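tool_call: predict_structure(chain=1)
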Amino acid sequence: MDTTPLRDAYRALLGAAATVADSGDTSPVPPVGEWNADQILAHVAIVNAATIAAASCVASGANTTYDNRIALDTWTIERVITLAGGNAGLRDRIRLQGEALCALGGPALSEAELDTLVPTLLLSNDTVLVDQPVPLRELITGLAEVELPGHTKQLLALLSEGDRACG
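tool_result:
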């Protein structure tokens, strides 16, 4: 599996996160009902961890499931922010998780492993997006195609108009 799009998506997300962190605005205020930068990054770190766990289970021959509800839980998000040491720690964690996922999605797993169906439950804004088995490869490519670009845009939306023009 070509992991170039995944690498590119992580690079864009981490670039956006650094731009927001370096913007001089100590706490960009998100729109009502949206997350701040640390919460977005913690959510991504939790999604990454769940994806790594699913891929690791498949690689070990074990059955697995994929459920993103924990990545939407406010208490868990705040705990991950604390455990990671804040924004810089979250960015470093995401960078390392991205490297791990690129290795797993690339040379570490066989085509048969990447095609393994994983019972999946994906929610967003209290709406069920997926509730069916999904090939592991689609969970990984979904990060590159949907999850990471969406959160990159969400991070950049936190910037003031002036910062967006400079960034």
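agent: The chain is about 65% helix and 10% strand. Proceeding to next step.
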